[in-house]
Design brief:
By secondary structure, the chain is an alpha/beta fold. It folds into 2 domains: 3-37 and 178-329, no CATH class; 66-175, Nuclear Transport Factor 2, Chain: A (Roll), CATH 3.10.450. It contains 9 helices and 11 strands. The strands form 3 sheets. The protein has a 5-stranded mixed beta sheet with strand order 6-7-8-10-9. It starts with a helix and ends with a strand. Residues 1-58 and 320-333 have low confidence and may be disordered. The structure holds zinc ion. Zinc ion binds next to helix 7 and helix 8.
């Protein structure tokens, strides 16, 4: 993709500090997962090679002895991941990812490109415990720590990751999400926020009805919403370069990601906001950020607020002075 495309795409990544989310965009009218998507979250040039060209992994597949215990398997995967990160070797990194989950694969590719652009040190991942749930599934508790930026901000998270056995070896299959489905969404969530996920299932459908009515367009497929139990986990799974914590994030070809512990009344407006981004950016993923956000405020957010969004000061001039990759919207609570 031309550099200008990437810059424009980065400008469309929108975050929300207080209530809402971020935005972004993934095409709806076309299957985003099949098409190589540029790393929208980063100004760094996209890897020239095809994202679908997954190199063959060199992961453990044997089944006997201590070396094949769940913990040993995960430790080897984690060690390989850290080596790939240290070497800035995206193909080796992506070889660890479950490529059959196209959305997660795209998210991980974009994450790695962001990581390459970030300044981190002492990046470590420790395996706290790992357990085989069945012959082809391991769930591991991992502790991740690193220092970010010249100030060496201390960032640490503990989370459950799922690994699955494939014909090409064991692969990282995303956080150990649980999932619920509604007519128009797949809601994936960390187990501790199940009550929030139940609310999201109901509120997201209200958002869907509103967006389709106002915009006159709808996604071709179900939209994946990923819910995170804390905001640091959300940042770790999106753009680690962002200096502050936020409530939502989405990018072209990716799921919509949200902080789960939100007031119920904010869920439908937030989902409508993000869903409108997904649909409009599916039509054109090179919209200027002001146009992308304007369309979304009008067709997605306004129906839940009413009135003139500008007079209500939903956004401020200050918010638009932020760098394109971190445009923030201050939405009324
Ligand atoms: Zn937005």
């Amino acid at each position: 993709m031309p550099a200008s495309y990437k810059i424009a795409t980065a400008a469309m990544m929108i975050l929300t500090l207080t209530g809402c989310a971020v935005a972004v965009l993934s095409p709806t009218p076309m299957p985003p997962t099949v098409t190589p998507v540029p790393p929208t979250g980063t100004p760094t040039p996209v890897a020239a090679s095809s994202p679908t060209a997954v190199s063959q992994p060199s992961l453990p597949t044997k089944e006997k002895g201590d070396a094949d215990s769940a913990e040993a398997i995960v430790k080897e995967l984690v060690a390989t991941k850290l080596e790939a990160m240290k070497a800035k070797d995206i193909q080796r990194y992506l070889a660890l990812i479950n490529e059959t989950d196209k959305e997660y694969y795209t998210e991980q590719r974009n994450w790695f490109l962001i990581y390459q652009d970030a300044v981190t040190s002492d990046f470590t991942i420790e395996v706290i415990k790992a357990e085989k749930i069945n012959d082809t599934t391991i769930v591991a508790s991992l502790y991740q720590h690193y220092l970010y930026g010249p100030e060496k901000a201390d960032r640490r998270v503990t989370y459950e990751e799922r690994f699955i056995k494939t014909p090409n070896g064991w692969k990282d299959a995303d956080l150990n999400f649980k999932a619920k489905e509604t007519p128009h969404f797949v809601v994936k969530y960390q187990g501790e926020v199940e009550a929030n996920a139940v609310q999201v299932c109901e509120e997201a459908e209200k958002a869907y009805v509103s967006v389709v009515k106002e915009l006159g367009l709808e996604p071709h497929d179900k939209t994946t919403l990923k819910l995170f139990a804390d905001q640091e986990m959300l940042r770790q799974n999106t753009d680690i370069r962002v200096a502050y914590l936020f409530n939502g994030w989405a990018e072209d070809g990716e799921s919509i990601k949200m902080y789960a512990r939100r007031e119920r009344a904010t869920i439908a407006p937030l989902t409508a906001h993000e869903l409108t981004h997904k649909i409009t950016l599916g039509i054109s993923d090179s919209l200027n950020s002001w146009l992308a956000e304007g369309l979304v405020i009008y067709f997605g957010s306004r129906p839940f607020r009413g009135g003139n969004v500008l007079l209500e000061l939903w956004t401020t001039i200050t918010s638009w002075r932020r760098p394109p990759s971190s445009i923030a919207l201050w939405l009324a609570p």
